[in-house]
Amino acid sequence: MAKILISELVLRDGHQSVIATRMRTEDMLPICPKLDSIGFWSLEAWGGATFDSCVRFLKEDPWERLKKLRKALPNSRIQMLLRGQNLLGYRHYSDDVVRAFVGKSADNGIDVFRIFDAMNDLRNLRVSVEAVKKSGKHAEGCISYTTSPVHGIPQFVALARELEAMGCDTICIKDMAGLLTPYATTELVKAMRAAVSLPIHLHSHSTSGLSSMCFLKGVEAGATMLDTCNSSFGEGASHSSTESIVAALQGTEYDTGLDLGALQEITAYFIEVRQKYWQFESAFTGVDSRVLVNHVPGGMISNLSNQLKESGALNRMNEVLDEIPRVREDLGYPPLVTPTSQIVGTQAVLNVLTGTRYKSVTNEVKNYLLGHYGKAPGKVNEKVKILAVGNAEVVTCRPADLIDDEMNKLKIECENLAKSEEDVLTYAMFPELAKTFLQERNANTLKPEPLLTKETTTTSSERYAPNEFKVTLHGETFHIKLTGSGHHGEAKRPFYVSVDGISEEVIVETLNEIEVSGGKNNGKKKPAAPASGADRPRPSHQGCIATAMPGTIVDVKVKVGDKVDAGDGILVIEAMKMENEIQSPQCGVVISVHVKKGDSVAPDETLVEIQ
Q1: Strand 476-485 and strand 569-575: pairing?
Q2: Of the listed ranges 61-65, 335-339, 409-413, 494-498, the one predicted with least confidence
Q3: Residue 341 binned pLDDT confidence (cut-offs 50, 70, 90)
Q4: Phi, psi of 283 (to 5 degrees)
Q5: pLDDT value at position 432?
Q6: Within 10 A of 220 (CB to CB), how many other CB atoms are there?
Q7: Distance in angstroms (rounded) separating the CA atoms of residues 130 and 238
Q8: Which residues is 502 bridged to in the sheet?
Q9: What would the pLDDT profile of 382-412 be if each residue is shown by its tens digit?
Q10: What 3-state DSSP class applies to 364?
Q11: Of 54, 157, 422, 423, which is least packed with CB atoms within 10 Å of its CB?
């Protein structure tokens, strides 16, 4: 009897897809003994966006998470998602960094490395695969599935043959956006089975509502491994629920052999856990057939929603989703998976928020157009390329061939902070984030972002206001929905609202406040709070340099008195995990600089002023 093997994704891709990768290790460990006893082929628990989220938001050491999971899952294969030459960051790394990262990941507990490249440029997988095989671990070569005028079954089959020749142990069809259809799955799996002898592993998000049907047709066509997610974090932007797939195949030649009753115990645990993370839930993580057009992957949609909310622009999500396919076409139809999903998505957000397409171009888009991520699948838009990088020469070799060994340099740069090679590798992934993280860890001052509670009892110090309501004024009733706001504490604070479906910005000026905490001072008047951003002025003329999105200053390129020309780089800001160079709109002299490296900034602040 044939048996279908199941990889469970609840510890990684499940929560990445629906709560912006916010699950903490403390909520994973209690259920690990039950997960360990089920008999999954593997448990995906590391890699992807979890490394970034640990350092950026949760203030956890990702390597410590892996060690704890390894100890708690002694009988299970732990699987990670690795972006080839990108590893877990957003650029290509030198070969010695790749080898060191794979080696340390294997040493600390990874058994299965799922390795992919966002461009399907397999030159970017070779060193990772070689390093995994040298470590004695399982190398799963990955094909990033997408649809476009330049993608089809012949191209995917050719990639499968290359992965087999490279020495991979299994091949994964990675349908990160849920674009597979049932009969396309049949055709693709049959073609691959005829071309290669390796087992085929299917990975498909449920965003379009088709993944379960695709799985059924896939196993009938010869796939023997499936990715599923416990229903507590499954379906929609996540994956087909484990329990449903197990039940669907039970009693057939494709029976998984897994115990539905035991799975239900895991489900009950995670249903409770998910409630803790309610603040990261998004309205955009359910079934959404628009993905068949916009191609936004499940792991990206909850993060995109959260980032637009922080920008006070959640009401413009539909505009961004419409813009993403246009940017993707301009860039030669890359599959949308990290980092290309962030590259395309962030550029689409900038195009929408600035009001002019490519008025501001991220550094990552520039690097993409220069070939620093690999070969684009299709032809890029020459007008966009010239606008972004002019006539600069495009890289045609394997991008990492141009990168000198980095490990020794990285060790020197963080020698006062790093206590292990793992720390050096964390610094390699996210230098600025890691500096702060390692400083705080060494000082024992790490503090994760808060988890808000929903309780609003009379003794609570927190109060919640409605974000959707009706207002009747002069006999007319208006439907109001709050979609975002500027900084708390501002004397004049912008609120972004939808009035009867029309987006508006409302400026609320605070004249006085009353304290609404549950203490004895209820009703006491307080003076208006000072403006945020260290009293940065609001933009008032063309020479006021501002940002389209909230972010962090990575670099300040000018100082007071500098002469600048229109188009000169003034600041570099990290927003939505991408770096964006802000350029001067005019010629002039810098008369004030209101920011420094590391500052957090908002769209309604003057950062630099030119006259």
Answers
A1: unpaired
A2: 494-498
A3: confident
A4: -75, 0
A5: 87
A6: 15
A7: 31
A8: 499
A9: 999 999 999 999 999 999 999 999 999 999 9
A10: helix
A11: 157
**b/e per residue 513-547 (b: at least 16 CB within 10 A):** eeeeeeeeeeeeeeeeeebbbeebeebeeebbbbb
Place of tokens 């999903």: 341
- Distance separating alpha carbons of residues 485 and 308, to the nearest angstrom: 11
Q: Kindly report the backbone phi and psi dihedral angles of residue 431, in degrees, each rounded to the nearest multiple of 5, phi listed first.
A: -55, -50
Among candidate residues 329, 435, 324, the one with its CA nearest the CA of residue 380: 329
Report residue 534 CA to chain centroid gap.
Answer: 30
Q: Rounded CA gap, 578 and 343, in Å?
A: 7
Q: How far is CA 597 from CA 392, 414, 418, 478, 562, in A?
A: 28, 18, 22, 44, 18
Confidence check: pLDDT of 438 > 90: yes
The DSSP annotation for 556-599 comes to E---TT-EE-TT-EEEEEEETTEEEEEE-SS-EEEEEE---TT-
Q: pLDDT > 90: what percent of the chain?
A: 65
- Rounded-to-integer distance, Cα 100 and Cα 120, Å: 23
pLDDT value for 526: 38
Is the confidence at residue 122, as pLDDT, over 60? Answer: yes
**Rounded to whole angstroms, how far apart are CA atoms 364 and 347?**
9
- Rounded Cα gap, residues 42 and 11, in angstroms: 11
Look at 150-164, 394-408, 563-577 and tell me which has the smallest mean pLDDT.
563-577
| CA–CA gap between residue 358 and residue 218 (Å, rounded) | 41
pTM: 0.79
Sign of CA dihedral 449, 451, 456, 457: negative
3-state DSSP: the chain helix, strand, coil percent, rounded to 5? 40, 20, 40
- Looking only at the bridges linking them, the beta strands covering 468-473 and 225-228 are unpaired
DSSP H or E run through 71 = helix 62-72
Residue 577 has pLDDT above 70, yes or no: no
* Residue 297 one-letter amino acid: P
Alpha helices in 250-376 (DSSP H): 260-275, 291-294, 298-310, 317-330, 340-354, 363-369
Write down the pLDDT at residue 297: 76
pLDDT score, position 483: 58
At 368, which amino acid appears?
A: Y
- As a whole number, the mean pLDDT across the chain is 88
Q: Which of 253, 326, 352 is nearest to 576 (CA)?
A: 352
Phi–psi pair at 508, nearest 5 degrees: -110, 120
